[in-house]
Amino acid sequence: MENLLEVIDLKVTFPTSKGRIRAIDGVNFKVKKGEILGIVGESGSGKSISSLSIMGLISDQGQVEGKILFNDENLLNKTEVEMRKIRGDKISMIFQDPMSSLNPVFTIGNQISEAILLHNKGVTKKEAVEKTIELLKLVGLPSPEQRIHDYPHKFSGGMRQRAMIAMALACEPELLVADEPTTALDVTIQAQILELLKEIQMKLGMSIILITHDLGVVAETCHRVAVMYAGHVVEETDVYTLFANPKHPYTKGLINSLPKLGSRERLTPIQGQPPQLYDDLTGCRFASRCPFVSAECLENEQVIAEVTKGHFVRCHKEVG
Amino acid sequence: MFKYIMKRLCMLIPVLIGISTIVFLLISLIPGDVVDILLGTSATPEAREALRENLGLNKPVVIRYFEWMFNAIQLDFGESIRTGKPVIEEFFARLPATLQLAGLAMAISLLIGIPFGILAAIKKDSWISHVVSVVSMLGVSIPAFWLGTMLILFISLQLRLLPPGGFVPFLENPIENLKGMILPAFTLGTSMSAVVMRMTRSAMLEVLGQDYMKTALAKGVTPKLYRYKHAFKNALIPVLTVIGIQIGYLLGGAVIIEEVFALPGVGRLALQAIYQRDYPLVQVTVLMFSLGFVLVNLLVDIIYAYIDPRIRYE
Ligand SMILES: Nc1ncnc2c1ncn2[C@@H]1O[C@H](COP(=O)(O)OP(=O)(O)OP(=O)(O)O)[C@@H](O)[C@H]1O
Ligand SMILES: [Mg+2]
Fold first, then answer.
1. What number of other Cβ atoms are within 10 A of residue B82's Cβ?
2. Is the CB of A109 under 6 A from ligand 1?
3. pTM for the complete prediction?
4. The domain B93-263 belongs to what CATH superfamily?
């Protein structure tokens, strides 16, 4: 399968009053056509910054370096006007909190058909409305003909996230970036939304980047996974290998902290806190929390390497 | 909605009755007497008594109040003690100048306040934003009577660019009318524009940080749609509240501005009526001011519901 998206050595830094923050620092991952890539990692590891970089939506103070190849074109070389044509058309995004992600003063129909009209010259308003109804049917919203006239406050959280997904699908994107799309929803709705994402991925054949901090979600939904820690991707592999044969100590820790059905084993949380991402970091960023730490880990920055075909790990112990 | 408007209009009745009662009592509490003003202090006691009887002032306040009420319900608000003309007529003769002043001041404040407020929010850390903050600080703190006096001093008396006061009806001579209105409307409009500007800026800043603005960007909207469709319609909601409150200020300000620029408006009429203890005239001007204030705020509430779909009145 061909790569749709390839992120190469992506770095994003923010100047702050206490010095430069390296929010993400040399991130690599690939998304193949028709694949769901999961990105997991704890809060602050750089998941959202990675996805906003792909959208070209890092705020002005943020400095972005590296390459983001989308269909072999580097998105970081595009102008704002070119990016605007890609956003919502070829790459679209859904966000964590559906309660606040829809504009309260426009109808659902207006907000979805706006996306259609923006990217399709020559489509009439009427056609856009028809397409909107079709999209809302696709995401499983009941009686869409009436609901398009409703304002967001009349929708429940789950319905709003369905509407957000419909909006993101408006121009049949090649890549859908979903930043924790189910975190704000209750558990049964979460499962429905994930099921929906899987279903439309199959139907429309696009690629999805699914950001989450929940390994359970990854196991159910994704084909491949990138695990992020403190601004790095520490492990990237297919979902089976990740659970069967995790290599990086952080991934192992994450999996050990998951409850297993029928097991009475104690859960082992990862001790400690991730480091602050200022400029003066040396050595492996996980070293302070790693049970296998050695002197070498504190001295040298780790590099990501392929241990077996398609399995990348950022830990010298697993590579050497 | 219709039911809501009717309900609000019905609520006007007790409000107006309350206001008229308070005003009636207040006037009878002010020392000084219309008789002194009409006849001077040297008149004979007999002449004074005769005039009092003539004007019905010898009756107790309570009786006078109920008499006034009884007539007012039939929309007869009495005659001016000084001119003898119906007070309603006096009021409406003075209304155009005030309406024009208030309307122009409002327009100036919105035309300055909203665009600069938006600009200051969008260019958050630029010099424009700082200039806007400073100017709006000044605008709020400079008293209108001082600004008006300064403008008359420099623009009218020194530079002789615009007339220092007076009023020519618009239909008589539109050019002279506007020339005379520029300074008063500007004076009244500036401090209001400062308030509108600050509110627009902070409301826009707040809206620009909302999640749905990120959604709009992710959709690929143009900067124009981003600012004016997605952001401004939301920011307008708090701005509208401020405008509603400012209208009360506008009425109060009109009294001062009309005095400074010698405009024959209702604000000045009210002031003169108070000086001269022209009770029926005071009553009707205050009543009309209150009516205007309440009606404008009702209008603001209706516009509210129109902009913000989350607001529904029943
Ligand atoms: N504008 C900014 N200025 C300075 N630092 C920032 C800025 N935006 C993000 N960061 C930093 O970048 C790092 C990565 O943030 P990011 O939002 O990508 O985390 P995340 O993995 O999405 O976390 P979460 O699970 O909480 O959403 C964090 O340490 C954060 O403090
Ligand atoms: Mg995030």
1. 16
2. no
3. 0.86
4. MetI-like (1.10.3720.10)
